[in-house]
């Protein structure tokens, strides 16, 4: 069985996607970015940007009945290689023990203010 999820309070996606898809015992979270209280792309401190992005991942997980400790894989996308160190600092705090598998790549985003995007896969079985 496949289910699609859109967290309550999240704006509708501007591109064709579901915030999360649950297939069997797995939840796949689409790439999330940092947003401010008005649901616009957050611009400011990079540490806060990463925290906000991970908060959004957690909110999407919760809408599908999953928790952060059930994440088995993270895909992280950064706009610049110089952001690896500050990204890792936040990541270590959020996943202090037994962090999920992770791939981190540098990409060029279509939005000029986006510096980090995070997708996740959780196992809920």
What does this structure look like?
The protein starts with a strand and ends with a strand. Helices cover 23% and strands 30% of the residues. By secondary structure, it is of the alpha+beta class. It contains two helices and six strands. The protein is globular. The mean pLDDT is 93.
Briefly summarize what is shown:
The protein is an alpha+beta fold.
Give descriptors for this structure:
six-stranded mixed β-sheet, alpha+beta, single chain, 125 residues
How helical, in percent, are the residues? 10-25%
Low-confidence stretches: none
Class derived from helix and strand content: alpha+beta
**What fraction of residues sit in β-strands?**
25-35%
Number of helices: 2
Query: Widest sheet: strand order?
Result: 1-2-3-6-4-5
Overall average pLDDT: 93
Categorize the overall geometry.
globular
Please trace the helix and strand order, writing H or E for each element: EEEHEHEE
Straight-line N-to-C gap: 13 Å
Task: Note the main sheet.
Answer: 6 strands, mixed
Number of strands: 6
Cα Rg: 14 Å
């Amino acid at each position: 069985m496949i289910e699609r999820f859109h967290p309550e309070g999240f704006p509708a996606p501007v591109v064709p996607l579901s915030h999360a898809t649950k297939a069997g015992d797995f939840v796949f979270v689409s790439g999330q970015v940092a947003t401010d209280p008005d649901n616009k792309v957050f611009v400011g401190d990079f540490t806060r940007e990463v925290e906000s992005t991970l908060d959004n991942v957690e909110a999407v997980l919760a809408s599908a009945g999953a928790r952060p400790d059930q994440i088995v894989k993270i895909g992280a996308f950064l706009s610049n290689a110089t952001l690896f160190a500050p990204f890792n600092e936040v990541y270590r705090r959020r996943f202090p023990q037994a962090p999920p598998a992770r791939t981190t790549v540098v990409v060029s985003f279509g939005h000029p203010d986006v510096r980090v995007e995070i997708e996740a896969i959780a196992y809920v079985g």
